[in-house]
Amino acid sequence: MAFAIGRQAGVNISIPQQHLLARAAPAVRGRLSAAEALSHLARGSGLRVKQVGGNSYLLVPAPRVAAAEPLRKPARAVAVATIPQEPETAPQDIVVTASKRDLLSRRFPGQWSRIDGEEFGPLGVTGIEAVEARSVGFSSTHLGAGRNKLFIRGIADSSFSGATQSPVGQYFGDMRTGYSGPDPDLKLVDMEAVEILEGPQGTLYGSGALGGIVLLKPNMPAFGELSGRAVVGGSLTWHGDAGHDSSIMLNLPLGANSALRAIAYQATEGGYIDNVATGEDDINTVGVTGARATLSAELMPGWIVDLSGLAQRIDGDDSQYADGAMSGLARDSLVAQPFESAFKLASLVVRKDSGAVRFRSTTGGSWQDVDEHFDASTRDAVRRLGQYSRARALSNETRVWRPMADGYSWLIGFSSIAHRYKVHRDLRSDDTTSDLSGVENRVRETTLYGELGAELLPAIEASVGGRFSVTRLTGSGQHLSPPNLAELVGSDPDRTERRFLPSAALLARPTEGLTVYGRYQQGFRPGGLSISADTVRLYRNDRLGTAELGFRYSLPLRHGFDLHGSATRSAWSDIQADFLDPAGLPVTANIGDGRVWTVTVNGGVRLTPALRLSAGVAWNEGRITKPTDDFRTLMVGSDTDPMEIPNIAKVIARGSVDWRHRLGGEWHIEANAYARYVGRSRLGVGPYLGERQGEYVDSGLVLRAFDQRRAISLTVTNLTDEVGNRFAFGAPIASGADQLTPLRPRTIRLGFEQAF
Q1: Pair 374, 586: CB distance under 8 Å
Q2: CA 710 to chain centroid
Q3: 46-52 long-range Cβ contacts below 8 angstroms, 24+ apart
Q4: How do residues 341-355 score in pLDDT, each as one tens digit?
Q5: In the list 382, 640, 717, 755, which could disulfide-bond 690, CB 3.0-4.6 Å?
């Protein structure tokens, strides 16, 4: 019956616990919306309806009210938190879990987007690029898998991942995946959703959330359910090698109130870059292997403990950049440039996700090793530059909150993190290895934060918050000459920074379905040490304050239309940025003050029950308005605009079409086609990083036929086989205007899914 309603209404309905399919279903008749029809069906079957997207619903077991036994909820039902005090009939409301107060979307004063985990299923073992392809406000560098830097909105600092903290906070479940260093590119296998919260988000997430946060939410163990899913796929890449991927998931009940969910995956992406110097073809093959597991147990009614572990390794045979003077898919390199990225994470979560007051405490650690090699050859010598980074972090966050009820809500939390990031370089020529300067940054950050929300009137709400952080910084250098070592010691590398980050927001709902809001929030990043040629130099913390006006309009089940947008102005002080020193190596420094304007608009309309159109556009404009004297000196003689904030395209636009149709019996077919335009941007700051990048169109098509247990999918990326230039960087010492990173050529993947 549920799938019949889905076919008639043109909506997606999922029943994650297979044993529920055997429940008797009452007849549903009359002129009803999809939400109303599903509510009638759920009440007669002992189920509960949860909307998880504008066009997607879950049917899960309804909470039992009998007092004979303690209340036990399946873990999956807890994973998308609901708020008993709030009416669950509003069809446009989804819980914004990244808000940390379990706010419904109509109460959230900010820009937030959610990508349902089912969208990643037909893509195989995919990573953060799939999130970028589905967004206009989220972007990344494209140095290589496990080596990239993420950006949200128009907040970008540089092209390189190093000692500076990333401007985007990334979380896997409740755990932060890092502090400094690149995005580990965790693969989106068996995911519930990905949430993007535009920043700054300093009050809730602390340092390193200048642009916002991205939250990867894996599916949690389901109690009382034995189930699994296997996925295999093969791909063909134009002008390149074939690839393959596979993954398996097993959900194993360990009693009435505990379960284990385990996932393993592997993939090989065929190379497509040729090296004319060595005569080798398709040199940039990338392999990934990974696994994760979560054990969940309800130790007492309502209190759940999650023990999780994750490990992933990425191996690249060579870099993916090319020479623009050639075909765009070839280059002339005298040495191989392999890279490796290994990431591990472990966490223990104690949570209470129901009731008037809720609790969550997360303790864990992360380990990231990245080894990179670059061609540093000159006319006189064949050389290879090696860079080796090691990041270690231990953290705890504990928070208590009360969701909105009786006109108010509150949150109070504590967090602590100890992080160590070490990087060193060497230069190899024949059998000779020369050690270059290295640096180690150690950070210990302790924070107390809170937020209070209140209904001033039935349709007007306000919230205020603050975060006070004490950051202890220490650092050291390696392979320094005695004079440079003495200069480092005298520059006070050991120091304490204190920072208070305020936030305030006002939200109104003047008419049904419309939310308007204004907010102000700050973010910051601590300072540290950076390598500069054969020395180590000190850089200070930077700060960002953002004022935002925005709106959301959504009545998807009545009018099939939704629209949301925002305009922001950010003032950025003491910007931390990377540029190339005279030796051609990246160095971090404070380059001055700047400001960033951003305007985004996204929306969609349902033309028929089976057909929906969506579109979005983002405009970004950022400049360094008050450069430091050192930066002005560096810019003398530059023939490009040196004051432009790098890496973020001025215009990004995206459009998509979604279609769904019943084939017969229990089989359905769905299709999604999209195109995303990325405008021009600049590689970085400084005279050596003025290369233009961007100005390309990425496109894709997904076809998927499925029933309750099986699916066949056909995916095509880069439909037009465009070369483009995603990132004008490949090797730092050999930096030049001819370097470009092309899109992966047109690739077709055929995939098969089987649930059991």
Answers
A1: no
A2: 29
A3: 47/20, 47/23, 48/77, 49/88, 50/80, 50/82, 50/88, 51/91, 51/93, 51/94, 52/80, 52/94, 52/114, 52/116, 52/193
A4: 999 999 999 999 989
A5: 640
